Amino acid sequence: MLVTDYSLNQFGAVLTFAIDLEELVSEYYNSIQSISDKTLTESEVTNRINAASKRKRNLERSRRENVTEITLEPIEGLDAQNYTISGLSYDKEGMVSLHKIASGFYEDAMEKLNVLETKRLFSRHHKEHSRLQKTVEA
């Protein structure tokens, strides 16, 4: 799993990165289903896969609805290298890292966005990943 080949300097690129990030979260939890780690129950893993799919759909909807802003809003100060998901273990530590990276991306990106609806969406996703991280840490 790797998300690095992005230039996060435009609204559209930031949304595409977020969509791909949620796809990777879903793939990560699909992989967890096939191994024997029991940090989460099968139901909890399924819920996390469904939540990632829902976040992805919300991001895709936001991209469609804000197509005008995609070409107009430059973004500065985001580096995809800071949000790389690679080599995560499929255990408690890996899950914590996954959600910490995702939460950090949404927190950093929402500060750079001027499209209010998308900014709110990123804020919700930041909070959700922070909550997921805390539930794994507990």
Could you walk me through the main structural features you see in this protein, from its secondary elements to its overall organization?
With 138 residues, the protein is mostly helical. The chain has one domain: Up-down Bundle (Ferritin). It has helices at residues 11-33, 42-65, 67-72, 92-110, 116-137. Helix 1 (11-33) runs antiparallel to helix 4 (92-110), helix 2 (42-65) packs antiparallel against helix 5 and helix 4 (92-110) runs antiparallel to helix 5 (116-137).
Features of this protein?
138 residues; mainly alpha; Ferritin; 5 helices; 0% strand
Beta-strand content: under 5%
Structural class: mainly alpha
- Assigned CATH class: Mainly Alpha
Task: Kindly state the percentage of residues in helix.
Answer: 55-70%
The main pleated sheet reads as: none
Element string (H = helix, E = strand): HHHHH
How much is the average pLDDT? Answer: 87
Give the end-to-end Cα distance, rounded to a whole number of Å: 25 Å
Tell me what the CATH architecture is.
Up-down Bundle
Q: Calculate Rg over CA atoms.
A: 15 Å
